[in-house]
Fold each of these.
Amino acid sequence: QGLAQAGGTNWRETFASGVPVSGAPQSGTLGYITGQALEESNVDLTMELVNLIKAQSNYQANAKTISTQSTIMQTTIQMT
């Protein structure tokens, strides 16, 4: 947080982010690395699928609206 983009995917520190901390794992206040461990996902798959279904439904409704509008326009043009 507080990093400034330095072009592309490069970032640099700012006053807000503070000075970067580096060092060996388990030294000072640094954490540890666990070999052959799987990271647990922080994504709620159920909510993501619900959001996907909502987005798909909205997309279909918008497509139907555009199709209906096109049909109405064609009918109006043919009437004149």
Note: Residues 4 and 44 are 29 Å apart (CA to CA).
Amino acid sequence: MQLDQLAALGTEQARQARQTRQARLVESLAFEPLHQAEQQRVGLLDRTATVKSAIDGVERVVGFRRVEGYPLIVFTALSKAEILSGWRTESILSATIVLVLLGFLGVLGGRLISLIKQQNRVQNDLLDAQNTLIEVNRSLNLLALEDALTGLSNRRQFDLYIHSEMGRARRTQSGLALLIIDVDHFKLFNDRYGHVAGDECLRKISAFITQNILRPADLAARYGGEEFAVILPGTDYAGAFLVAEKIRRAVMQAAIEHKDGVEGRVTISLGVAAYDPASQVQPEDLVGIADKALYVAKAGGRNMSVIAN
């Protein structure tokens, strides 16, 4: 029993002596000139630190580790350049890839922005072209439906409108009146004063007609030559006759010289007709009725309004 205790005591003393030698070895290695710490003492087991060599000035990452169960200490010292070289290579490669991607995205984005701007320009050009086309079509429609000399509606527009309004009057059982107007002795006016003066006379009479029909639905047209026509929707004989007289008096009071005319001035004669929605009268028939009333006015001495029978 005493021998066993002595043997155990010897073994423990040997282990403690070995650990003491290991600690001294680590301490002596840590204080070698090649591995002196720049900022603080580096010793002890299982530690890692960065030290700067006093000999070559190289900064190294130093590590100590004791091998468990063996009287052995592993010591490593790698320079920062060696450790960071791989990281630098990967970082440079990654940065290069990122820069290439950013460059590609920049080019792609620039191209995309350019395409968007180009598309916007094309859309704006198309919109401008469409608006221009609409405006041209509107102008053409106006030219096609407007009398160039007087600015009133032309015969084509008159025909379209009277068909439309008579159809509306038939559906709504409402009235409609028509005036046919003729400039008295206009051929003699042209022969004496010339066609330029004749054109100016027609323009003035057109203005008097327009000034005396105030409702948006009323339409004045140059029917042909020195003849005019006025469509008055929703109007009966009495209302149409009042409008006819206002126009006739306005022309007479203008006192446009006409030495071969009635009272030495330009005058007009008017035939008045009204549409009965219960009748079978067609637009052409209504024009004929108003024209007959006009003939009566001219035969009766001109410068008057006559209501159709």
Note: The beta strands are 48-52, 59-67, 72-79, 176-183, 219-224, 227-233, 268-275, 305-307.
Amino acid sequence: MNEKAIGRVLKKWLDSESVRREDLFITTKLPPPGNRAACVEKCLTKSLDDLQLSYVDMYLIHTPFGVPETDGDFQRHANGDIVLDLETNHIETWKKMEDMVKAGLTKSIGVSNFNKNQIQRLIDNSTIKPSNVQVEVHVYLQQDDLINFCKEEGIIVTAYAPLGSKGIENLNKMAGYEREIPNILDNSVVGGIANRLGITPAQVLLKWILERGVAAIPKSTNPTRLRQNLDIFEFSLTEEDMKVLKGLEKGIRVCDFGFFKGFQLGIHTTLAKYKLGNNFLTFFS
């Protein structure tokens, strides 16, 4: 959605030689309407045109589900639910992602919102293993099993919504999906550690993620908070801090895609049948 704006800024920076391309790491994603082999190259080429780049550093499949291509809004059933593309095939799409690496259009490839079974299936049927798995991770959804699996496979995990993404409530409301999102930043345990160390609750949460060997991509448009989110390398969390933060696990997913009517996944349960043999697999970990 913002690739054209980012592309204009990148071109300005690179043309002025104030930054070198090799000093930037740029990731973009294959969107759900492009989640089929025939669309991978077209979608990536469109992103590169908008970003005004010849390659990206990482290209991720955004979701394990796909939707039919449209010129505008999603296709919907008569009841308003979004139409799923039941022809989505992870293996065929992944093989085309591998072709994009071989063509030099992306340096690495990965997935977002995939679960362990889906990732294992890609590994078993690939020549290029996923380099990165981007999933929701925070103290209320700690993803131990998935993170340990990825570490064993040499796959880097990136945590999105590491601060809980309270702002997603507004997106839900605009879509007519009412759901209260817990405010992790207001958690008293997190606040107590922050007060003791003289830092912000956000810095505690981000440090906790890094200490687990996971990358974090917090979202903010506030310059002060952006700087604070980067300033997390001059303090340490104790073993006791890590232990009490681990005790905050609630199995609560912030981004359940309920803002897409028809994709109300819940925390653990919604299933869809794709071309995965005769197996049913949960969308998310």
Note: The first strand starts at residue 27 and ends at 30.
Amino acid sequence: MKKNQKGISVYLMQVLFALIPLVVGAVILTFLAVKEINESLVDGVYNSLEITAKAASEYFEYDVQNGIIAQDDDSFAYCDSFKANKVEVTIFQGNTRFITSLRNDKGERNIGTKSDDAIWAACQSGKDVRKNGVVIGGKKYYVYYTPIYDANGDVWGMAFAGESQETVDNAKRQVLMSNAVSAAVIVAIFAIIAVIIAKLVADPIKALSNFMNKLAEGELKDELKAKSHVKEIKQLIVSTDELQDALRNAIGTVHSSADLLAQAVREVDEKTGHNVDNISQINNAVSEVAETSQNVATSAQSMAEKAINLGDDVERLNDNVDILRKASDEIQVANNDASEYMNIVLKSSNESVEAVKDISDKINATNQAVNDITASVQMIDDIASQTQLLSLNASIEAARAGEAGKGFAVVAENIKQLAESSSENAAKIKDIVNRVTDISNETVAVAERVSESIQTEKGYISDTQGKFEILSSAVDQSISGINSISDMAKELNTIKNELTGATNDLGAISEELGASAQEVAASCATVTEACTDTQARTEEMRAINENLNTAVGFFKI
């Protein structure tokens, strides 16, 4: 499940990184510029007032020194001429306003008013005075005073030039507003540029982030639609495309391998089931062989007893031909029974040989299926190794990408863990396959020994059949030569001895056949156990394959 990631977006971070220094710099520069301009403005005001005051001083100093100064229209007009520049001019006689452009609230000139005593004292000492915040007529002024000398070089009065502080403050505010507007325009222009650049950088990163989220959700069908003019981001886009292609190929291969593995597991399970059925049939056949060998042993014992009786009959042959004929008939019946038993044993042996051959063929087919599984497991292991290598490359690229590559690094770590899990499962499957192969090889060896034992039994059965044919011929001769039984008594005695040896051999063969049957039964039990173990391992492989399918089924190609 995708978790909501809290934090600042790349887009917002880039805009902030561009705007914060810009705004702070603009504020600082505006403050410094306004301060500097204000200081320059004040200096300019004082310079202007100084020039005006000195000009007025020179203008009226001539009249003072020549004794012609008067409060006439020309004098007032001269002072009023500076009002165009918002400058007030006053000529003091002593510290009393004598000629001035200043007017009171009634519109009357402020003639006869006094200046500040400290200012007048400074001018009397021959110094110029400049101050701000001087209140004249209820208003604050920037002022400049300079002495006016008479013909004797004494201070006659003062020339005053002043500008309203409100006018200067308005000029300062205009400068401040002008600078603020200029700074705002510059900030706005750079903000637009920063937003455009941030968008060009953030949009492809956002597209990459959304695409990586889809990869993390297992969605491999969508194509990455992102372009960038930034070299590192272009490389990240290319690497992401390559990662998607690699994941598609890897998951597709794992899907195919998992399907092949599932098919192989089904075939192994099916063939193992057939092997169990065949082994059950072999067990039944072996039981029949054991039972038949017991019957043969019983018949051999009976024949031995009859051979002994036959010896007695030979001694009494001349006395009781009927008894001999009856004994011959009994021998014939026993011989036929024994021949029939031998045919059954031979048939069972042939069936056992075919069954053992079928077991060998089934086990060989099982081995071939196991080899196919081994190849599929090796393919899965190779794919896991390639996926681990791709995960390592992706982690390196994510580390290079820094903060922007953290999500990429998480996906790469998930891919690495999936590859390691696939490798571990592949190793488990290899171990199971090797165990199945060992058990199958042991089963083949046991089947070969069983086949050899049955072939030996067939040889014994053939010998026994030959002896029974001899016995049958002897009985026929006994019956046909009953009239000359006396002459053939010695030959019959010889036949009796041969019959005794043959029955002894038959007993030994029966015992060997029984022992072989027991060995075959034990081998069948071993094979059955091996097949059961194979079925259990097949179930484990099926579970592992289902887990693998579940793991890769997360991805949608």
Note: The mean pLDDT is 80.
